[in-house]
Backbone:
């Protein structure tokens, strides 16, 4: 940070002091009047850009994290306007959700009142912070004008068979008394309140996102290079596509087959036991004929397993537990008889809930085998090289001096590449070749087939809480589920007055008798509304489209507008949304594409994840006592200094420690820049060309470099360069050609236009001082003059035998070798030398090269 003090002069000229509060007060009403960022003019022919910040959740006032994210988004939005684009940069509120409801219960107030008061406060802070929003498109997801269309969207999915209800064991938070999506369970605990999550069987609404699993992975290709690599892989892992084979095992004394899913069909000869999920139906069935002792051991075990989270169950560094079911399966490939165990490390709802255990090559199976002393058989020799020719077997063994490592002894499963052994006709094939060959053999013999599996589950969208979008379904005894006719939308939330919002496992809406009891749209008989509300991730899965027609009461959004503006060119927000929000928006976009409402399949073309704002190395929080309040920083330093500080602190992806930055230093820099504009004495029509050439070169270098830097999000570098420009300008004013020099005006104007990206108030005030009308936000970026970008050059004379044959324009810093090379390469020089031999070359860089030849 530039810590040089504000000059004496600057501070002492009464009435001419840089006063951020006065400047803010002066320009806010002007901008309110002008609406410089409105995008309502449909005849505007400029090319378009859509710049979007993840909309805030109104839980209180804005915080420093908002200041950072919205500051960065605003730099991008303002930048594209200067580059001649019509930029859509809207704002709204993600205003439904549990925190509002919990806060409302705690304070005994209405969730709606609480929410809209917070919004008013945030809006007020935003006004001062002055991001370049088009306020005419403001939306709140909790307005009936918005959620009417969320309900419409639900109905479109319902009609397509993508919204359905089923009974299932769901994640249940006993504290919040609500269902949680898998995504909302972190380390077995509720993402919101941190309490342990349990399982509960409930009838719930789902969106069939698993139908889109392949596309959710494959379409990530469109985003490579434009989304952070980390987010791309988080998306990929969340969907978790795995490829392998299903193998059909039979069970002694039981009809039919039990398929198991494996990613390693090449290890089929190494199967030494089978494991079924303890909480699967198959386990319950198999144990029924077992001795009473086994049955009670199993029942006890099952009780324990029911309280465990999937994450714990899959963990590799956990002691293995299980119960032998006294039953045997038969391996279809070699007829071998293997014992069947029940354990928690196999999940009931992945693959088929049963596995073929290959302890030699799977760590969890090995841990289990070692715990219960089950056999381990190596079938892939990982000491064998897999490249080169296939080795010839000697006595049925690979010709290897190094015997295969024994995992039963080492405790480490052999998971790497190698060649097959102990595997009948597949011996000596490489692991990868064997995976293909065994799958083929299974398919042709009818014992199995290639298969895929996904970690992704359908999206559980129903919540038993009040403050959300009501699900537009009516339940009729006669007709069953009846969708609410679209012309009856919105189904408005009843007033919270008189409703008990305390969580108790059923939706509070069920008690709103006047609301819940309706007549069936189909048969007119008595019926009831669905009392659940939707997960707020449904609201935010499509909001980027609603901005396009935020006030329409005839459509959710107009496909023609979507064609014009969408997809979003630049999305800005926190990495905490790297999985869910992005996954759901991507899903909804694909659904709307399939329904012919959209012509693109990915909603956000480019993504910027800002880092966090820390204090003293830790995440800010009230309880930790290191909370820096946005409101107090804003009144201490002003919006511009805050914005500059955040942009200057580091590259935007990195965390910022507020203890290490200097908003006061930023304010000083802004005062210096502002003072330069104040000092300019030339008129706007002064001829720049006549200005100080050195200053002009710095100005134009900046003009040339800044766009690329902004586009690669190097905001901190742009500010550093701007500081340099201001310093050089100041020198010319104070000790050089003086304030009347044309180059000083040019530099001041370029500074104002560039500062519009980071410090809009200061920029606007400078622009006025330079003699222009508002607003500087609409001024286009100037093109750098290429003649000012080349380094200064000198003329080098090249002589051959005393005669000047060429003149080269070269850098004054050129070295002798390079200069000689250039001289010898000159066509005129080559011609002058002809086929004579060079006997001497004298180089005096950078001015002269003299070549002598033998005559
Ligand atoms: C035999 C085998 C041998 C396996 C080997 C792995 C290595 P992903 O990649 O996650 O799809 N598996 C299958 N169903 C399971 C379930 N319901 N719960 C827990 N584990 C299950 O992993 C697939 C592998 O995980 C499968 O391949 C299976 O173990 C196990 F050397 O089969 B494998
Ligand atoms: Zn009916």
Residues:
């Amino acid at each position: 940070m530039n810590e040089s003090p504000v000059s004496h002069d600057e501070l002492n000229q009464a009435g001419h002091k840089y006063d951020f509060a006065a400047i803010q007060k002066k320009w806010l009403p002007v901008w309110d009047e002008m609406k410089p960022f409105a995008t309502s003019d449909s005849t505007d022919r400029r090319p378009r850009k859509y710049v979007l910040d993840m909309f805030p959740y109104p839980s209180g006032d804005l915080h420093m994290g908002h200041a950072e994210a919205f500051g960065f988004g605003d730099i991008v939005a303002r930048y594209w306007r200067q580059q001649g684009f019509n930029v859509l940069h809207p704002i709204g509120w993600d205003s439904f959700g549990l925190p509002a409801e919990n806060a409302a219960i705690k304070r005994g107030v209405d969730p709606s009142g609480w929410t809209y008061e917070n919004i008013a406060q945030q809006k007020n802070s935003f006004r001062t912070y002055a991001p370049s929003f088009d306020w005419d498109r403001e939306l709140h997801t909790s307005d009936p004008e918005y959620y009417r269309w969320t309900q419409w969207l639900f109905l479109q999915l319902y009609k397509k068979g993508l919204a359905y209800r089923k009974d299932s064991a769901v994640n249940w938070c006993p504290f919040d008394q609500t269902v949680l999506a898998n995504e909302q369970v972190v380390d077995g605990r509720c993402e919101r309140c941190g309490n342990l999550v349990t399982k509960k069987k409930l009838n719930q609404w789902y969106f069939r996102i698993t139908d889109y699993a392949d596309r959710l992975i494959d379409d990530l290709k469109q985003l490579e290079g434009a989304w952070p690599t980390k987010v791309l892989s988080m998306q990929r892992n969340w969907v978790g596509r795995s490829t392998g084979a299903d193998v059909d095992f039979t069970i002694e004394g039981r009809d039919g087959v039990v398929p198991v899913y494996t990613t390693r069909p090449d290890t089929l000869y190494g199967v030494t036991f089978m494991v079924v999920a303890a909480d699967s139906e198959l386990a319950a069935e198999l144990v029924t004929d077992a001795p009473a002792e086994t049955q009670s051991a199993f029942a006890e075990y099952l009780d324990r397993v029911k309280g465990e989270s999937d994450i714990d169950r899959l963990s590799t560094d956990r002691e293995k537990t299980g119960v032998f079911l006294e039953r045997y399966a038969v391996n279809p490939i070699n007829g071998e008889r293997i014992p069947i165990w029940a354990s928690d490390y196999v999940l009931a709802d992945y693959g088929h809930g049963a596995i073929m255990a290959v302890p030699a090559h799977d760590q969890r199976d090995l841990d289990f085998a070692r715990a219960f002393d089950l056999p381990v058989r190596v079938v892939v020799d990982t000491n064998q090289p897999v490249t080169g020719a296939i080795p010839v077997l000697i006595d049925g063994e690979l010709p290897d001096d190094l015997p295969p490592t024994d995992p039963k002894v080492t405790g480490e499963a052999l998971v790497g590449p190698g060649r097959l052994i102990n595997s009948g006709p597949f011996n000596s094939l490489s692991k990868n070749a064997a995976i293909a060959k065994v799958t083929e053999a299974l398919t042709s013999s009818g014992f199995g087939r290639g298969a895929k599996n996904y970690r992704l589950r359908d999206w559980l969208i129903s919540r038993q809480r009040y403050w959300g979008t009501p699900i537009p379904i009516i339940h009729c005894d006669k007709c069953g589920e009846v969708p609410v006719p679209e012309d009856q939308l919105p189904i408005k939330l009843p007033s919270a007055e008189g409703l008990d919002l305390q969580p108790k496992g059923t939706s509070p809406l069920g008690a709103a008798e006047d609301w819940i009891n309706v007549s069936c749209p189909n048969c007119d008989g008595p019926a009831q509304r669905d009392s659940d509300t939707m997960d707020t991730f449904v609201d935010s899965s499509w909001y980027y489209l609603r901005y396009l027609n935020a006030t329409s009461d005839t459509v959710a959004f107009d496909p023609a507008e979507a064609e014009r503006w969408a997809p979003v060119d630049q999305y800005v927000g926190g990495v905490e949304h790297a999985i869910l929000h992005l996954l759901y928006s991507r899903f909804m976009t694909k659904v709307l594409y399939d329904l012919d409402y959209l012509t693109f399949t990915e909603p956000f073309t480019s993504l910027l994840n800002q880092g966090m704002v820390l204090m003293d190395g830790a995440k800010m929080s009230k309880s930790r006592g290191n909370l820096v309040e946005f409101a107090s920083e804003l009144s201490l330093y002003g919006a511009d200094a805050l914005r500059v500080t955040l942009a200057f602190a580091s590259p935007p992806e990195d965390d910022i420690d507020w203890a290490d930055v200097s908003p006061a230093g930023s304010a000083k820099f802004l005062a210096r820049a502002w003072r330069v504009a104040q000092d300019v004495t030339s008129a706007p029509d002064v001829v720049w060309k006549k200005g100080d050439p050195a200053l002009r070169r710095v100005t134009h270098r900046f003009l040339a470099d800044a766009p690329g830097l902004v586009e690669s999000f190097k905001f901190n570098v742009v500010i550093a360069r701007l500081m340099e420009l201001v310093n050089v300008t100041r020198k010319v004013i104070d000790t050089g050609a003086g304030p009347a020099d044309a180059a000083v005006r040019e530099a001041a104007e370029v500074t104002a236009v560039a500062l519009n990206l980071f410090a809009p108030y200061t920029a606007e005030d400078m622009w006025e001082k330079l003699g222009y009308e508002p607003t500087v936000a609409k001024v286009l970026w100037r093109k750098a003059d290429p003649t000012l970008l080349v380094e200064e050059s000198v003329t080098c004379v090249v002589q051959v035998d005393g005669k000047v044959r060429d003149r080269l324009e070269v850098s004054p810093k050129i070295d002798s070798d390079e200069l000689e090379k250039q001289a010898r390469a000159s066509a005129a020089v080559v011609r002058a030398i002809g086929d004579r031999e060079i006997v001497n070359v004298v180089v005096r860089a950078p001015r002269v090269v003299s070549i002598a030849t033998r005559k």
User: Anything to note?
Assistant: DSSP finds 27 helices and 34 strands in the chain. Residues 715-735 form the longest helix (21 residues). Residues 242, 261-264, 267, 346-347, 350-351, 353, 355-356, 358, 361-362, 453 surround ANZ (ligand 1) (CB under 6 Å).
